[in-house]
Amino acid sequence: MKQRRERLSTYLKEKQIDVALINSPENFFYLTGFQTDPHERLLALLVFPEADPVAVLPGMEKGQLLDSGWTGEVIGYADHEDPWLMMKGKMDERGSGVQTVSIEKEVLSYGRSESFFGLFDEVGVEDIAPYMNEMRVIKDESEISIMREAAELADYGVKVGVEALREGVTEMEVIATIEYELKKKGVTQMSFSTMALFGEKSGQPHGNPGDRKLKPGDLVLFDLGVVWKGYTSDITRTFAYQSVTDEQRTIYNKVLEALGASLAISKPGTRIGALDQTARDIITEAGYGDLFPHRIGHGLGINVHEFPSMSHLNDGILQKGMTYTIEPGIYDPSVGGVRIEDDVLITEDGYETLTKTSKELRIIE
Amino acid sequence: MKQRRERLSTYLKEKQIDVALINSPENFFYLTGFQTDPHERLLALLVFPEADPVAVLPGMEKGQLLDSGWTGEVIGYADHEDPWLMMKGKMDERGSGVQTVSIEKEVLSYGRSESFFGLFDEVGVEDIAPYMNEMRVIKDESEISIMREAAELADYGVKVGVEALREGVTEMEVIATIEYELKKKGVTQMSFSTMALFGEKSGQPHGNPGDRKLKPGDLVLFDLGVVWKGYTSDITRTFAYQSVTDEQRTIYNKVLEALGASLAISKPGTRIGALDQTARDIITEAGYGDLFPHRIGHGLGINVHEFPSMSHLNDGILQKGMTYTIEPGIYDPSVGGVRIEDDVLITEDGYETLTKTSKELRIIE
């Protein structure tokens, strides 16, 4: 974490920014290692080009921050205190006037920006989010090791889901079983609402699970992930229940082929947009282009959707340590939908899928 | 919903505000009846003093908004379109220049405020949140009827939790069982992380459940709630497992007495702060004042924490239709903690507790 803060300080120095106010819980966690949900209260980290950073959080959480290993300065404010004034004091101690500040523009509320900017006479405002995204996009060994565990728990969730399938069970019952078993493994939060979609419901790319009962001949689509030690996973697998039609099999194999083709070019140096394009070309040439209405994937890390965006428009280049999903799909409400999704890590000379569940078409008896 | 929008328009007219930009999903839902999570995309409702409102949301959700009964104008934007420019067009159609706008200051991000204010030459900025809170603090019959259902599901969650208790079971296992059974009832979201705390863990007002195993003599504290049709519930009950000491019984009965005293004065006309003060006086006189470190409760509705704040400092007056929690507690790590919480509705001449689970001390065998 210290190294990350130093990197940010170096950037501020280069850009002649006097202070950065970090206040998303995600970036606070990334820079301090301390994860908390401050609800409506202020959580912030002040980072300076030269001086040491200051953590700002509700007083009742100060002990937990220190327990987590934070050795820097802390402003632990009580509900009746004004954390902005206390921050002003720390900034004054650090000397020389503030002329340019950097904030997370899409995170800091307008109301808080008024409080913050009000501390200074006149101040230039920069957005620090793009640089934070750039830092976070390359995962280090400690992050990768946690993401492996998160992906393993997602694999386990799919396994539990498959074992819960029986004729007449509802989508919600299967979801409840999956989350129940993951909770018993210590998972306290899913990365998003768990999906189990049966038959025609699987044919909607953003269907909502409900009371639909499982019938023979249904496709069954699972999409789920966990939050684990601050990092997320996200897996999709599709199965056939008791039988499969030729058309379902054709669609399945086409999606699998598209996924395989995107994986095959997943290595340092590849243009990111090529992954979507490659999969899309395969699906389009097979005549299913209109039934694949979303981008191929998204970056994965502390947030379940983060950088890089895996759109065909992304001209960025894959680098070692990037983690993202590849998740092509074909959705036909009359046949059902198929999506297959892996969590992918870019390695020295290729890739590794963090999710390990088999992708061959499986007919559940 | 139409009535609520008209009330807001009347307010804007009185205050000479030309347009309100509502962009919290909660207030959007309150004013339109349509509930959605836009993630990083913009969701907004433009409300005018005279003209009809305009809903702004991602194009792929437009159909769902219309299905929900919305008959007004809609801007459904695609990812490559600029919703701000489209909003500017609608505002221009509605004539006369915009001089004062109203936003939710603590919700709208600084980045979005730049986009919005950039549409105008020069503009005054007001905060609309206080008025929205004022509207939302009094619940109508349709809201109360949903909150009754939400509270009934919370009662059910406690019942499931009690039935899951057996020697050696962990806190997380009991939580998984509670959420599993609620999911089967159609609950897709809890209002907050479900708490089940055993023994010394119950003695921490914000303890985190984990692997602690249940032992005879433990106090068992459940704190949970559901989100149901857009509204929340929130219940706490504490039980003794197999046996109870005199000290545990004393604490329990003191908390129950404090809760009862606060309920007794819950009626239209009471100063809100008196509820906290009354409970606090009882607990303090018994010598446990230092072990009751939080306010007596919070408003409850679309948000699990909303207005009114049930602090002893609140000089507001209870009115018919207000809904809030009362949840006194005494936390002694060496004895365990007791908290008892009801969801309360202010009626014509008194109160009704929406949560119905018995509050008498119960020893689970």
Short synopsis of the structure:
The structure is a homodimer of 365-residue chains. By secondary structure, chain A is α+β, with helices and mostly antiparallel strands. Chain A contains ten helices and 20 strands.
Q: What can you tell me about this protein's structure?
A:
The structure is a homodimer of 365-residue chains. Chain A is of the alpha+beta class and 365 residues long. The first copy, chain A, has two domains: 2-137, Creatinase/prolidase N-terminal domain (Creatine Amidinohydrolase, Chain A, domain 1); 141-364, Alpha-Beta Complex (Creatine Amidinohydrolase). The first copy, chain A, has ten helices and 20 strands. In chain A, the strands form six sheets. Chain A has a six-stranded mixed β-sheet. In chain A, strands 8-9-12-20 form a four-stranded mixed β-sheet. The longest helix of chain A has 23 residues, at 141-163. The mean pLDDT of chain A is 95. Chain A binds chain B through residues 39-40, 60, 103, 105-114, 125, 127, 172-173, 175-177, 179-181, 183-184, 186, 188-189, 193, 206, 211, 305, and chain B through 39-40, 60, 103, 105-114, 125, 127, 172-173, 175-177, 179-181, 183-184, 186, 188-189, 193, 206, 211, 305.
